[in-house]
UniProtKB/TrEMBL annotation:
Organism expressing this protein natively: Rhodoblastus acidophilus
UniProt-recorded name of the protein: Glycosyltransferase
Statement: the UniProt record of this protein carries the keyword Nuclease: no
Any one GO molecular-function label of the UniProt entry: hexosyltransferase activity
Domain spans labelled Glycosyltransferase subfamily 4-like N-terminal: 10-169
Keyword Signal in annotation: no
A Pfam family per the record: Glyco_trans_4_4
Keywords, comma-separated and alphabetical: Transferase
InterPro entries with a match to the protein in the record: Glyco_trans_4-like_N, Glycosyltransferase_grp1
Length: 401
């Protein structure tokens, strides 16, 4: 994988752990970051190989440089692992859809290939830059190549599965595996909060496309237009747009209402999440987000939180009556949807109960079994072999290339 390290990428880390518990040897190739600088380590029996990146891209030219550097390191590390312990299966987790280029030499040597489609990269590009152009069509070509090389495709939801079937023509080789959380780490004692100071919470990556700037503008609207100040906002996460949204909060004079924690793990993360009273999903309206299953949906429901979001099709389908949805796509619409929940503790409690009921359906153990069946098919093993019943297979498996 190229865009996040493990164990920070929860989906890939849970996949790696599922494979390891099934008795497989697992190596992950991913980028190094300030929070995960070690070039090599073994966590819970999973080998993690991290490589440097020259920059954290923001514009089109920056992405070309970043992806070229990543491909070089991915190819280099793949061959190192191949020489040391062998590779039977390579799993490429997008974005981008270029990782298949690093895998091609080993595929020619007989390795199998699984495409784990986290995002629709062409739609993601269009949402980020507001246009199509040459790079959009290059991404469509890279997606077609990745589909063509894949023995099996894993998608993050059923909407992406339909895309894989229509654009990739993969027939019975596509399985949807949702990124449901392992909820054990989310279960923290909720602190005794002041009933007149509810906490708006955001958990996730803070990139240009994630809508955290819209969250800040919604807080500005609540404070300076609606004159409602009996709340605070807690933004948990890091990313390339963090400093920009901190500056925006100062510019709009709402820095006293928003706390940006940066990157958190372990007990500190659990404690901050336990302080949330309302979960915010500010990801804006666009074709990419409309079909995306946000991790925040599953995590907020596991925490028993009412949720405020824009009216994205997949988000509404997953959240149902656990959410309140903005009428439009502006920060003002997000503020208008949030205000009734801030004012009404009974309404928050009712939606929180709906969220807990929803969370009961989001079972990672079931998804892990579906995921392991993909490897059964790829390796030609009987489908009944899952988890502890699985025999150790030779060679290395790469769930996060």
């Amino acid at each position: 994988m190229e865009n996040l390290p493990v164990p920070l990428d929860r989906r890939v880390w849970q996949e790696a752990q599922a494979l390891r518990r099934a008795g497989l040897q697992v190596s992950v190739i991913c980028p190094a970051t300030a929070d995960y600088p070690a070039r090599f380590e073994v966590l819970d029996g999973v080998e993690i190989h991290r490589h440097p990146l020259p920059l954290q891209a923001r514009g089109r030219c920056g992405f070309v440089v970043e992806y070229a550097a990543a491909l070089y390191h991915e190819t280099r590390l793949l061959f190192e692992i191949q020489q040391r312990r062998g590779v039977d299966v390579i799993q490429a987790c997008n974005p981008p859809d270029l990782i298949v280029l690093a895998a091609l030499p080993l595929l020619a040597m007989g390795a199998r290939f699984i495409f784990d489609q986290h995002d629709l990269c062409p739609e993601l590009y269009e949402a980020k830059f507001g246009r199509r152009g040459l790079l959009y069509w290059a991404l469509r070509a890279a997606e077609r190549l990745t589909y063509a090389c894949a023995d099996q495709v894993v998608t993050a939801n059923d909407a992406f599965r339909e895309v894989a079937l229509s654009r990739g023509g993969k027939g019975g080789c596509v399985a949807s595996v949702y990124s449901y959380p392992d909820t054990t780490w989310l279960r923290a004692e909720k602190p005794q909060a002041a009933p007149d100071r509810p906490v708006l919470g955001y958990l996730g990556v803070i990139g240009d496309q994630d809508g955290v700037d819209g969250l800040v503008r919604a807080v500005d609207h609540l404070v300076h237009v609606d004159a409602f100040t009996g709340f605070r906002a807690l933004v948990v996460g890091d990313g390339p747009a963090l400093q920009g949204v901190i500056g925006l909060a100062r510019e709009l004079r709402v820095e006293n209402y928003i706390t940006f924690t940066g990157f958190l793990t372990g007990e500190k993360l659990a404690a901050h999440l336990a302080a949330f009273d309302i979960g915010l999903i500010p990801d804006p309206l666009n074709p990419s987000n409309d079909r995306m299953s946000m991790n925040k949906v599953f995590e907020y429901c596991a925490l028993g939180l009412p949720v405020v979001a824009f009216p994205l099709t997949e988000t509404r389908r997953l959240l149902g009556d656990a959410g309140v949805y903005a009428k439009g796509g502006t920060p003002e619409d997000l503020a208008a949807a949030t205000l009734p929940l801030l004012r009404d503790q009974a309404l928050r409690a009712a939606l929180a109960e709906n969220a807990r009921r929803r969370a009961a359906r989001f079972d990672w153990a079931r998804e892990a079994r579906k995921y392991l069946r993909v490897y059964d098919k790829c390796l030609g093993l009987p489908e009944a072999l899952v988890f502890e019943e699985r025999r150790r297979a030779p060679g290395a498996l790469l769930p996060g290339e």
